[in-house]
Amino acid sequence: MKTIELKNVSKIYKNGVKALDNVSLTVKQGEFIAVMGQSGSGKSTLLQVAGLLDNCTSGQVIINRNDVSSLNKNLLADVRMKSLGFVFQSFHLNSHLRAYENIMVPMLINPEYKTKSEMKERALHLAETVGLSNRIDHYPGELSGGEQQRVAIARALSNNPDFILADEPTGNLDSKNEIAIFDELKRLSTSGKGVLVVSHNDAVKDYADRILIMKDGVLEQ
Ligand SMILES: Nc1ncnc2c1ncn2[C@@H]1O[C@H](COP(=O)(O)OP(=O)(O)O)[C@@H](O)[C@H]1O
Ligand SMILES: [Mg+2]
């Protein structure tokens, strides 16, 4: 069973703010976990530390049994590439690339994919699975917010990660698209991926297997 484990993780930023205070959490494959809590409570920091985008001040982050503090930069990048997919509130798409090209971006650093046509084929397949087949040639500026977020989800899936980490994925969407995105994330968790979603959107409660509340850096289980 693949897992992301946080053991007694604290994060103190350089300015002295303690954003995470002794947080322990295990995310398993096939599980949809929602972390809720007020703005400034440490939710984004939690996701960044769990996703190896930032390091913690103390404690352990263990991904698929690798204690990440023992990994050098290259191995860390490797774990991130192969095991983790990210989705953000503001989509973070490249506006100069078409939808399918955005989906291809993470494959460019993956030696598993040898040719551009192989990458494109996978990108088109992923676009289809998130319901975007008829939008693959569009640029982000030609897509609705919900469509852009689906491109971002397909991109997060490009290297077939074990886990999807999503930070306020519906923050810029209307309620109809909100539901579509949570539906999509739920589908991914039932298909075997571990899904960790940070949100202050109550709708997420209908999808999560577990709801955890973050308060002043403390994760209430
Ligand atoms: N890069 C940073 N440097 C200093 N303080 C930060 C940084 N990022 C976040 N913080 C602070 O850490 C706390 C938690 O922030 P954050 O994790 O973004 O919370 P949330 O996502 O729940 O709104 C806040 O007090 C915030 O101001
Ligand atoms: Mg945040």
Structure, explained:
The chain has a single domain, classed as Rossmann fold (3-Layer(aba) Sandwich), CATH 3.40.50. Helices cover 30% and strands 26% of the residues. Helix 4 packs across helix 5 and helix 5 packs parallel to helix 6. Strand 4 and strand 5 form a beta hairpin. By secondary structure, it is an alpha/beta fold. The site of magnesium ion (MG) has 2 residues, from helix 1.
**For the largest beta sheet, what order do the strands appear in spatially?**
6-7-8-3-9-10
Which cofactors or ions or other ligands sit in this model? adenosine-5'-diphosphate, magnesium ion
Number of helices: 6
Tell me which oligomeric state these chains represent: single chain
Corresponding CATH architecture: 3-Layer(aba) Sandwich
**Secondary-structure element sequence?**
EEEHEEHEHHHEHEEE
User: Average pLDDT value?
Assistant: 96
Tally the beta strands: 10
InterPro entries: AAA+_ATPase, ABC_transporter-like_ATP-bd, ABC_transporter-like_CS, ABC_transpr_LolD-like, MacB-like_ATP-bd, P-loop_NTPase
Domain ABC transporter: 4-221
GO molecular function: ATP binding
Pfam families: ABC_tran
